[in-house]
Specification:
globular; alpha/beta; 172 residues
Amino acid sequence: MAAREPLNVLFLCTGNSARSIIAEAIMNREGRGRFKAWSAGSHPKGEVSPHALSLLESLHYRTEALRSKSWDEFASPGAPRLDFVFTVCDDAAAEVCPIWPGQPMTAHWGMPDPAAATGSPSEIALAFADAYRMLNNRISLFMNLPMASLDRLSLQRRLDEIGERREAVHKA
């Protein structure tokens, strides 16, 4: 993979209100200078989950620029050229994951939707904390890949392996 930096990353989900938003925030802070991240949804809810914002703010992330938006923004003229597109929707919940056209490297990093969590406020907060932990782990693995020394096929295999990781999910 070419060593052009920053590399542009898009996190996609259906609603673009929680998982993809959290991933965007993590990548932009942890990968600053090496990666630029955005998030979008195939059917955006139009607002960021207040639970996602609360979690990110408690971890000292900047949240003022985060917004729920359509993936159409990234398919229009003038949109950034994407190097990577990761879907983070949940196969197990029968969510339909968007498919990104074009040539970026793609992988599916599915996980449960914390915005669908029910129960007490602490159970909902735990679902968001689990999503954050899983995304942070996967993004950390991704950012530490030796991009310049991997050919496209090897890199694709590594991206897929990251998405196949099965972290334990806490049960309240």
